[in-house]
Design goal:
By secondary structure, the protein is of the alpha/beta class. It contains seven helices and five strands; from the N terminus they run E-H-E-E-H-E-H-E-H-H-H-H.
């Protein structure tokens, strides 16, 4: 069974650079024009959520979908704060590979966020396919391979947080 990918598009970015629009054009996700269309129970990727995304979210993704919030990072705070529908989840520490935020931690594009969640949930092939539609896409998986593999082994949100803490501690030494 294939995961259903949905993208709430806030219409705040340059359509030529928007990874959410590109995913929709390439039939890798469906655009939602309003947050009201987010299905109840869908997993919503929201960096301000207090619950970490983990493999435990896989069944929710298969049943109701995975939602990426596509907005400008400059206006993200408002969008993320207003996102209340679905199961809100924050991705763990990863590095962006997109041309705008290359090597910046956590500032992922919508496509990178969706691919990360797919990978962690056990949909590795779908994650790679998602990133294959961008010139820089495969480098995102390569750059974060060890992190993604470590998070994918975690069975719960608590384990993901623990692994993330270990990763962060090892980088500050």
């Amino acid at each position: 069974m294939q995961p259903r990918v949905l993208i709430y598009h806030a219409n705040q970015c340059d359509p030529r650079k928007c990874t959410g629009i590109r995913l929709s054009r390439m039939k890798k996700g469906k655009i939602l024009k309003t947050m009201k269309h987010i299905p109840p129970g869908a997993v919503v990727l929201n960096p301000v959520s207090e619950v970490a995304f983990s493999r435990a979210d896989r069944d929710h993704i298969l049943r109701t979908g995975l939602v990426g919030l596509d907005c400008s990072w400059k206006q993200a705070e408002t969008i993320f704060a207003n996102s209340k529908l679905g199961a809100q989840r924050a991705l763990p520490y990863l590095l962006a590979a997109n041309p705008i935020n290359t090597y910046k931690p956590i500032k992922l594009s919508t496509a990178e966020a969706i691919a990360s969640a797919l990978y962690i949930a056990g949909f590795k092939e779908e994650a790679e396919e998602t990133m294959s539609v961008f010139k820089w896409g495969p480098s995102f998986i390569t750059l974060n391979q060890e992190l993604l593999d470590a998070y994918a082994e975690c069975a719960s949100s608590t384990e993901v947080v623990q692994v993330q803490k270990e990763i962060m501690d090892s980088q500050t030494r």
